[in-house]
Design goal:
heterodimer; A: 6 helices; 18 strands; rod-shaped; B: mainly alpha; Rna Polymerase Sigma Factor, Chain: A; Arc Repressor Mutant, subunit A; 9 helices; 1% strand
Chain lengths: 442, 184
């Protein structure tokens, strides 16, 4: 081996290490322009990226909060309105190259024949709708005969490839007069195709949604009543006023959503309406019975007679001073049947309006400070009384989770219970707070 | 400006002075251009690589910590950029794994007569005709002075692959040089 030989590696290093590009001042100008332009772009890109990042983070945060656990959040794709759509002559719908032929209506004098074969192809193959573009190109006419052509160009419609540029000239102006392109869906429904299915929104299968709602009620009730008995005379024609008292209850409702808006609901609730006379008051009620005067100690609305008869000679001259504490407790069970209309305020809030009636079963207990009575003035046990009430309800439902919502309702119910014991006009205003647990059954 | 030191030029570039950028660009154009030429398959591509390398240099010159010389730092940026661009182009199977295959450790040699017969540009053209993998490895090993371990890490290949590519590149390049000499 010759000692003056040089390895390939060394040869490369020696010859190519400094074999740089030739310098000229244009290199700097070219670079400097590129650098400055790039700097602007980089700056914009940085700014855009920062802003986009911030928007994305904000968006995701809002989205996350608003969709927290919301499996029902659905994105509805835009629906193509098939019946109202119009397709211009520059577009057509088809699935293969033969479609445009089938869409050209036959003109008696055009010499163009629509063959059965074309129709077959059309029928058999038009299954996947596609937008087909047409390009308008100017084509030089090469005279091939003695026919004199006044124009040196004519337009031709050709099928475009996928990467074709958009139509730049109205097709109407250049389509030969003897051709008519008809939008297929306007006059020629596509047989045996799923063209419509592509654009018709699929209806979701009927969704049956049950919900269970434990409710807690607080509010006031107005209980109007009259004194009992045929022989009662009220001084100054006075009958009992409506008493407005605290009302509370607890219950459970069960609802069935019939569709997006309507629901029926029933349930059972136990409520108490308590009249609590804890202050001294003067009653000037005198009862005339069998020509003897009996001063009544009228507890409350039921006119429970629990005072001893006092014979008086003068009508209307007896005054009773109530000094004891007396309480009437009306316990009743409500079984409502309501129909509700739900409307969305936004994704998480619904307004709920309801109307219906309720079967009420009422039981009266009355008591003074020391005793509890369940007997009427004749000594018979007071029996439960059933009456019907009607109710209106309106409220707000907050649905933070798909299966859980919180409800706040205001309701008003009216009912009349009337017999010798219960002569009650019930008006009940209640605020109902509940939690609904939805059970989906698709 | 011509007498400014590299440090002064760096400071000027950090301050955004165009004149300093101009001088630095001019001063290093040829040397960094030589690197780009070796990795590019033609000079237009080499110019693009060089411009992009300079953009990186100027954009990052504030990060130059003087832990190495400016030359080394710029050299490194340029090589990295060239490798990165070549890898983008050659990402799909550009280099067959040859790990475990035998390779020849002997370095082919060129006699003095042959060496004189071939000038730098001719040699560069031959280098550019090498398969991409060969060219990358022989560049990194023979000219840049990287070890096979470093090349393997840089190109994300096995060390053995680097060695075999180098071996084949040397043999092929020698053959091409000799053929060129015969033709001339």
């Amino acid at each position: 081996m010759n000692t003056s030989n040089k390895s390939i590696d060394q040869l490369l290093k020696d010859k190519l290490s400094d074999n740089g590009l030739a310098w000229n001042d244009g290199e700097w100008a070219a670079f400097n322009n590129k650098y400055k332009e790039g700097k602007k772009k980089r700056g914009i890109a940085w700014w855009s990226a920062s802003v986009s990042g911030a928007i994305l983070i904000l968006g995701f945060t809002i989205w996350g909060l608003s969709n927290w656990g919301d499996e029902q959040a659905k994105v509805e794709l835009p629906v193509f309105n098939y019946s109202n759509s119009s397709i211009s002559k520059s577009e057509n719908v088809g699935s293969n190259n033969n479609v445009e032929n089938s869409l050209v209506q036959e003109q008696p004098n055009s010499g163009f024949k629509q063959t059965p074969q074309v129709n077959n192809i059309y029928n058999n193959h038009i299954s996947v709708p596609q937008i087909k573009k047409y390009l308008v190109v100017e084509k030089d006419i090469v005279p091939q005969s003695n026919i004199v052509v006044n124009e040196n160009k004519q337009s031709e419609v050709i099928e475009a490839t996928n990467d074709a540029v958009e139509v730049t000239k109205p097709v109407e102006n250049i389509i030969p007069d003897n051709l008519t392109i008809t939008p297929p869906q306007a006059t020629q429904p596509v047989p045996n195709s799923n063209l419509k299915q592509r654009f018709v929104k699929k209806k979701n299968p009927a969704e049956i949604i049950y919900y269970i709602e434990p409710i807690f009620m607080v509010g006031t009730g107005a209980l109007g009543s009259e004194t009992i008995g045929n022989n009662i005379i009220s001084a100054n024609n006075h009958s009992r006023d409506f008493a407005s008292k605290y009302n509370n209850g607890i219950g459970i409702n069960m609802g069935l959503k019939l569709n997006k808006h309507w629901a029926v609901e029933t349930g059972i609730a136990q409520q108490k309406f308590t009249e609590n006379y804890s202050r001294n008051r003067t009653e000037n009620i005198v009862v005339y019975t069998n020509k003897s005067y009996r001063t009544l100690k009228v507890d409350t609305a039921t006119g429970k007679i629990n005072s001893a008869p006092v014979t008086t000679t003068t009508k209307h001259d007896s005054m009773v001073n109530h000094t004891d504490k007396s309480v009437n407790i009306y316990s009743y069970v409500q079984i409502p049947l309501m129909i509700y209309y739900h409307t969305s305020l936004n994704k998480n809030f619904n307004i709920v309006l309801g109307a219906g009636s309720a079967i009420n079963i009422m039981q009266l207990k009355n008591r003074n400070a020391n005793e509890l009575y369940g007997y009427d003035p004749t000594g018979n046990m007071i029996q439960p009384k059933m009456f019907i009430s009607v109710a209106l309800k309106g409220g707000l439902e907050w649905k933070p989770l798909p299966r859980l919502s919180f409800t706040l309702n205001e309701s008003i119910a009216m009912g009349i219970a009337d017999n010798d014991i219960y002569r009650i006009k019930l008006k009940q205003y209640a605020t109902q707070v509940g939690m609904r647990f939805y059970i989906k059954n698709k | 400006m011509k007498n400014a030191t590299d440090e002064e030029l760096v400071q000027g570039c950090i301050q955004g002075k165009e004149s300093h950028r101009h001088e630095l660009f001019k001063r290093w154009f040829v040397r960094l251009g030589a690197i780009c030429r070796r990795y590019a398959i033609h000079d237009d591509e080499a110019k693009d690589l060089l411009q992009e390398s300079f953009i990186k240099i100027f954009d990052n010159i504030g990060k130059f910590r003087k832990e190495s010389s400016l030359a080394t730092w710029m050299h490194r940026i340029t090589i990295n950029h060239c490798i990165s661009e070549q890898k983008k182009r050659l990402k799909n199977g550009w280099m067959t794994s040859m790990d475990g295959l035998k390779y020849e450790s002997e370095i082919p040699e060129i006699d003095e007569e042959t060496e004189e017969a071939i000038d730098a540009d001719a040699l560069l053209e031959l280098l550019r005709q090498l398969p991409n993998g060969y060219r990358m490895v022989i560049n990194l090993y023979a000219v840049e002075g990287f070890t096979h371990k470093e090349i393997a890490a840089q190109l994300e290949i096995a060390e053995g692959t680097s060695k075999s590519q180098l071996s084949k590149a040397r043999k092929l390049l020698k053959k091409m040089i000799e053929e060129t000499k015969v033709r001339n």
